Each structure stands twice: as C-alpha cells, then as structure tokens.
Amino acid sequence: MLHDRDPRMPVLADKLRVRKYVAEKAGGQYLIPLLWSGDRPEEIPFDKLPSRFVIKANHGAGYNIIVRDKTQLNQEAARHQLKQWLAQNYCQDKFLGIEWAYRDIKPSIIIESFIEENGKLPTDYKFFCFSGRVERVVLYFDRFEKLAAKAFDRNFEPSELRFNVPEYAGEPKRPPNFDKMIEVAESLAEGFRFIRVDMYNLDGRILFGELTFYHGGTGYVFRPERQDYALGEKWKS
To answer: Rounded to two decimals, what is the model's pTM?
Structure first.
C-alpha cells in the first residue's frame, strides 16, 4: 500500500474498466450483465430498468445501492447519494489516504443485474492470489445483513485464517466446479505479486465480482499471527 505503484492497478480497481480485462483474460461469460453506465445520476433511465438491480460507483469500495424492488426506490435519494459518492476521491478521503489504486479513477456509475442465491445475496468467494497462485479462499456470507466468513486453502480444506469478522458457523460444501473457479482466479491474477479475486457461484454459474489489491483496507487484522506470517512468506518482492 505504501510503495506499489503498478500502473495496471487503477485499471483493475476500476469496477467499469476491469470488465474489459476480465473478458479478455477469462471470458465475457463470467461478467454480471451491465444494464447501464454513465457519470450523471440524473440520466439514469429508471423507467427502462428491471424491477431489481444493483447500482454502484466504480471508484472505491462500499458504494452500492441494492434495489430489490424498483417501486420502493426513492429515486431522488438515490441520485443524491450517487452525487455525493461521485464527488469523493476514495483514496484521498478514506482510510488514511493510502489506497493508491483508487486515486486517479474517473468516477462513474454502473448498474448491474441483481443476482441472488436462494432468495439472498450470493456467497462471496474471495481468492487470495500470490504470484498468480491461489493460496487461500475466504467465503463471505450475508455480507449486507449478518456478515460472517470462513477460510479454506486452495483444496477447499478448512484454514485457521481469520479476520475481525465473525466466523461462519456452518459447513459450506465445496462447489462441484471449484477447480474451475481456481482456474479463472489464477488467469486473472497472472503477473501480480498479490491480488484478491472475488467471484460468485450460482448453481454452477461462475460470475466475477471484483479485483482488489487491498484486502480489508487498513482495518483488518490477520489472525492468528502465524497465518499472517504464512501469507507474508507467499508475497515475493
């Protein structure tokens, strides 16, 4: 975070521009359908959008409006929120100002199709890749409701790795196409010392979430300490 200034990072941290990278490296079939993009909230064609969708700003984290029922959406409030987000520089305004990859991203809006799993937001698979190889995968459950997480190694064997997130109490099953998820993650991670590749798996359909270089920003603690060291040893300078 302090020293890496790889010029590819702002492109891949941009939730709009990264779509081209994913299509070229892995395939367009892994992209969540894009319904609209632009930089003027007042131009969002709400009347042409489906009943459910997700609005995002492309230039940071946490800029999401999840719309489960368009008839219940306060459009003016949504536009006001988007204007506030678009006026922010995520790097300079958040978390000590050291998430450099977001600094020069041109703010814009993207609207994607709503995806769900058994009536809930889908499980988020976060692949931790070092030198292009998946070393850990952390599953996030109920991310916007009652967040919990559980970590595994690349073979989907449980890992003791924890963050300051409640541990999921269930026993997730390995997806039948987990090896394909590994393959896709490693194709996107090729050429980077570290990158986190996020994906979803909806009844066997693999969908790309995002790429990030800053897991947890400045706020996560890697526990236990030996896991912090174990992952650090994978990071080749």
So the answer is: 0.96
